[in-house]
Each structure stands twice: as C-alpha cells, then as structure tokens.
Design goal:
Layout lengths: L1 E6 L12 H8 L4 E6 L12 E2 L9 E2 L1 H11 L5 H5 L3 E10 L2 H8 L3 E5 L5 E2 L1 H6 L3 E4 L9 H12 L9 H5 L18 E2 L2 E2 L9 H19 L11 H9 L9 H11 L1
Parallel strand pairs: 1-2, 1-6, 4-7, 5-6, 5-8
Antiparallel strand pairs: 3-4, 9-10
This protein binds S-adenosylmethionine (SAM).
Enzyme class: transferase
Catalytic activity: guanosine(37) in tRNA + S-adenosyl-L-methionine = N(1)-methylguanosine(37) in tRNA + S-adenosyl-L-homocysteine + H(+)
Function: Specifically methylates guanosine-37 in various tRNAs.
Length: 264
Amino acid sequence: MRFHVLTLFPEAFAQPLQFSIVARAVQRGQINIDVADIRDYTHDAHGTADDYQFGGGHGMVMKPEPVFEAAEATLSGYDAAERAQIPVILTTPQGELLTQKLVEELASSPAIAIICGHYAGVDERIAEGLATRPVSIGDYVLTGGELPAMIIIDAVTRLLPGVVGSPESVAGDSITTGLLQHPLYTRPAEFRGMTVPEVLLSGHHAEIDRWRRRKSLERTLEHRPDLLSTASLTNDDRRYLAGLGYAPPDAGQVEGRGADHAQD
Ligand SMILES: C[S@@+](CC[C@H](N)C(=O)[O-])C[C@H]1O[C@@H](n2cnc3c(N)ncnc32)[C@H](O)[C@@H]1O
C-alpha cells in the first residue's frame, strides 16, 4: 500500500510514524509513505500557498494551484486505470466520519492520497475538482489535516495482511467485532490488591470465552449501547442483555422514547 500525503508541514510526519508497527511495515516494504510538500509547487519566491478569502472573513485559505499540481506530480506514476482506483482523501471536519468500515474499504485500495488542509481550510475547488473522498476523523476541529492523515495511515496499515502479527487480534478488536472488547489482563495475577478474574486463570476455555463475551456485552451496553442495534447477537447474548435491562429498539423502545421526548 502506498500513502501519498500532501501537506504544508511535511516535518510533522518525520517522527510520529517512525516507531512500532507502522515503522516495521515501512521497513518490510508493506507500506510506503510518500510525503509531498505543497510549498514545492508554489510559483513565487515566497512560496505562497494560502491567501485571503474572497468575500472577506477570518483566516487564510489554501490556494488551489499548488495542491492540484502537487497531487498531479505525486500521482503521475500511475496509469489512468490505477489512478481511478486511488481515493483522494480531503481531510475536513465536513467529511464522512472515519469508521472502521471506511478504514476497511480504504485498506482495499492499491494506494491512498491524503490532502491535509490547514488554516481556515482549502479552496473549495480542491473539494470539487481534485478530492474524491472528504473524510472527518470526528466532530471536533483541529488546526490541520496532518494528525487526521496519520490516523488514517495508522488505522489502514494495521489491517494490511502481515502487518499485525496475529490477524485474530485485529479481528477481535473493539468496533471490528461490532461490540467493545472484553477486559484484558496480563501478569502479575495480583497487583496492588487488584486481582485477575479467577475464570481467566482456570484454563477452562469455554468458560473463558463465555466470560469474555458477557463482559464485552456489558461494556458495550454501558459505553456504546448504539452498537447493540447493529451487532450480530446470538439468542444467548440477547437473553443476557435482557437480564441487564437492555431492550432492543425494535421491541417498542423507539416508540417509547419518542413518547418520552414528546412530553419534554
Ligand atoms: C481549522 S480547520 C478548518 C475548518 C473549516 N473552517 C470548517 O469549518 O470546515 C483546518 C484543517 O484542519 C483539518 N481538520 C480539522 N478538523 C478535522 C477533522 N475533524 N477531521 C479531519 N480533518 C480536520 C482539515 O484539513 C481542515 O482544512
């Protein structure tokens, strides 16, 4: 997988991607991170890459010419058929929310280009005529698209075959399974008076699996009950959740909630 990042701040990428699993993926040639400096594609002696807004307003806007030219130069090595398969992501709080589903989709691309906005944002013609995939990493606003780009690179990289040692660990992650993951413990079995649940030391694999599943359901109900409506649940799961007081929305809950709100 090749990542092509377009940024005004290439130095931001020097350290954060040079450790642990992502760095190993680079060393093994599983990924390649190519960071292009948009300022190299400006046309004046000052390297002007942003300008005032037409119509007035606060904050500078990134100019279209250097971003288009940086993208064209970066992607010039691909033929038209390959180019058509490469998502050109624009990082923006206005984009589609980055979810594990979107990460999985991106991981099947041959390459990904990521445009990092900055200041007040980018000229709208970049969104109209260059980017194919506006992506937001969450409902908050950052100073630039550099951290979102790194998050996308990290999340996609760990899904690529052979990057994470055991594929089972990736498959069992929170969200990926549709639920939050069960609690994890390692040695020592007792630490500052806090003990590891007995069942995990028992060696009874069926019991351990059952405990983990139930903890996963409990946590999801507590922290992300919204996930339960789309999670793949067994009858045993449903019975357990019902015992915890969970009633699925299709069991009259939606109407019930609507009625509550109507009284607000
Ligand atoms: C200060 S923000 C600009 C926000 C813009 N004025 C707006 O209201 O949509 C500067 C840049 O940071 C990046 N950015 C900020 N928040 C982001 C988010 N939640 N997801 C992805 N990128 C974000 C984008 O690249 C954006 O162009």
